[in-house]
Amino acid sequence: xxxxxxxxxxxxxxxxxxxxxxxxxxxxxxxxxxxxxxxxxxxxxxxxxxxxxxxxxxxxxxxxxxxxxxxxxxxxxxxxxxxxxxxxxxxxxxxxxxxxxxxxxxxxxxxxxxxxxxxxxxxxxxxxxxxxxxxxxxxxxxxxxxxxxxxxxxxxxxxxxxxxxxxxxxxxxxxxxxxxxxxxxxxxxxxxxxxxxxxxxxxxxxxxxxxxxxxxxxxxxxxxxxxxxxxxxxxxxxxxxxxxxxxxxxxxxxxxxxxxxxxxxxxxxxxxxxxxxxxxxxxxxxxxxxxxxxxxxxxxxxxxxxxxxxxxxxxxxxxxxxxxxxxxxxx
Length: 331
Known about the structure:
Elements lengths: L1 H23 L4 E7 L12 E2 L30 E2 L4 H14 L2 E7 L1 H10 L4 E7 L8 H10 L4 E5 L14 H10 L3 E4 L7 H4 L14 H6 L5 E4 L6 H10 L3 E4 L3 H4 L2 H13 L6 E2 L11 H9 L6 H15 L9
Parallel strand pairs: 1-4, 4-5, 5-6, 6-7, 7-8, 8-9, 9-10
Antiparallel strand pairs: 2-3
């Protein structure tokens, strides 16, 4: 009798989740973490991606194996394969956005972002990827992009990959520019690819700490910042920062498919339970695998502890508020 009761409860939950998803079918989704990447951005294509990523990451002997080999011989039976041409990456991504009624905050080089946005002008909000270094954009170049080329977001800021903290003095003119122009910022703080410090020798995991944003936000109180990957796995630090700085938001991009659901759900629920459900934004972190977008949506849509209203916040309303769009378009 008890087993029958459990089976009925599971069935009713599945029916409820399906009906809830059906009710939201066609509603606008804002993906705040989307990349205009070339096909070879993560190595020579095609590249295989297993979901969840960490569950398929075997221990490696560094004397015999390389981390990059995982994408050529993915350790799962049903990997997502990346397209082999730049055009196909763009075309397949746009197809998913149209099918699922998604508007994406598209980051990348200005030329590539402009190319993608011309192909589907109603599907993208232009964002400029930035990293301090030899090829960095100057403050004046960024100002022109924001004022003359309809770029609306500063990010993804990827300084973590070159070992530079958010509060580094070299970033000060850029934070000041974003604040003065009222341009929202999206900054990478969290996990990189498997073996990040060996693939990208300047990457440092310690720069994930959300506390590294504190002095930036003190100096620039009108700056709107989204922490990409929500500073995973440093949830307690992130909650402390969200409490202290009400203009701070987070996105879940990539973490939902990087880890098993139980682990991701635990982190997401901590943010929700702490009262910050109005500042969590959906992101797919689509780079070279357009096929990852819909699983990224499903993982959030099937979270059993989220109400329909909370899902609508995560999928659209919170991003609309962060980007200063009309939240009515989300309902």
